[in-house]
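Hi V.,

You were right to ask for the full record rather than a summary. Here it is.
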Amino acid sequence: MNYLTYRALNLLGALGCAGALIIAVVYFQQHLGLEPCYLCITQRVFVAMVGVIFLMAALHNPLGRGRKIYSGLAIAASIGGAFFSIKQLWLQSLPEDSIPACGPPVDYLMDVFPASEVITMLIRGDGNCAKVQWELFSMSMPGWVLVVFVILSGIGLIQLFRKH
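Predicted structure:
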């Protein structure tokens, strides 16, 4: 990846995040009709955060310490998102009698509860998060999102340790 400049690699990361979000909303949610669970929405927020960080780094194109800060933020946000992917994979691996109860739809939460409570509920997840709605090569959606977060962390690490 030495042939890609700092700015180009950050822009590639930002475009990858935008692409992942577009696929999630347009293909999975609108075309296939899959409703995102609480943890799915939380993972989308982290993908968006990483994308914004990469975009800001590409637009700012800092030198020295600034590059390290952006890289560190991207890595931290990727690790945060990976945590929620792993949490959802764990919920999906539980036996049926151990799965937590399902909660109300997210739209309802937004209408009824204050933002701080909604965020807490989204981060906690519920029984809907344990449902496997889609698989590719025997890996469910949060497994693939975890792969995306690993790739995004890798881009952040490349940017962190690059010499120029």
